[in-house]
Design goal:
With 405 residues, the protein is of the alpha/beta class. The protein has twelve helices and 14 strands. A hairpin with a 5-residue loop joins β11 and β12.
Amino acid sequence: MSSSSINKVVLAYSGGLDTSVILKWLQDQYNCEVVTFTADIGQGEEVEPARTKAQSLGIKEIFVEDLTEEYVRDFVFPMFRANTIYEGEYLLGTSIARPLIAKRLIEIAAETGADAISHGATGKGNDQVRFELGAYALNPDIKIIAPWREWDLSSREKLIAYAKQHNIPIESKKGGGSPYSMDANLLHISYEGGELEDPWCAPNDDMWLWTVSPEQAPEQPLNIEIEFRNGDAVAIDGVAMTPGQLLKKLNQLGGEHGIGRADIVENRYVGMKSRGCYETPGGSILLKAHRGMESLTLDREMAHLKDELMPRYATLIYNGYWWSPERQALQCLIDDTQKRVNGTTRLKLYKGSVTVTGRKSETDSLFDESIATFEDDDGAYNQKDAEGFIKLNALRLRLQNKKSV
């Protein structure tokens, strides 16, 4: 990309080593004005220091925003209405945060008159795809600068040397910091790199930050009730909460009981396999509770259709197609199925496990005890009807057998 074509760029800025180097590199390489954007999406770290650091690097337009409620309400909850899991295990905590950040980058670019955006995702990962597909979907003419695909600063040592050369302050973490590459938001925290690059190597127990080990969890189980309205969780134990408050509370409860750890080798969109470890305590509880509520309130074929569509929906999110027309069309179908998902699920949290122990819906339950009972149903169900039903369904099997004899 020609540096002469860039006048102002909006950088997704964390204040860490990588993005601080990127900030200076953009100024030097493209001779452009840089706007910084730092998002609080519940990662549990203070984001305001990013403002101070950006100011110290000469930045005039600085955006530091709390997007936690929007993140859970408009991205996490719609995804959970579909019971979304990628490759059977991953609850998509990193994937679902990227479309929100891309959206805000594009909005800030429009607000500030910037003609480009930039991010710190590497050329090996999925995030570059997610950021950029989202950005192009929202502004087809936006220019995107991905420094990791352009520069030769290919190691942490080179980044540190560049920072020292240009007087970029580097904060050293107590104890030397984590050996892992981590990403956190209110839905999850992920760990990659270090010894985790060997898929045979078990993670150290002190790696996990949000959850106690199941062995160290309380000896007594905890029973909770989650209320749903139109497929979204709205209350815990009768206490109404905002989406962000509710997920934060479930994270706390799940973490205390060792719930939500996962060790996964996944297939990245760019073609390689990658090993990562994840903590998603609140999401793991929410998924179980939502499926429990749907088991009572969804029509059989509607529920099965959702399960058939879910892997496709999960792949769209994982690969960065949140803003695609096919994802939005699927969302319309999914949301329509949720109109009857109203009621309360009771769950038991115990030493890493989540078990549904009850579900009820005063208005939308499709469970009819008078029909389902093993006792006398007073003629509500004629068992003789099952004979014809079975014979009709067996007809093609009988004909096939006769032909093969």
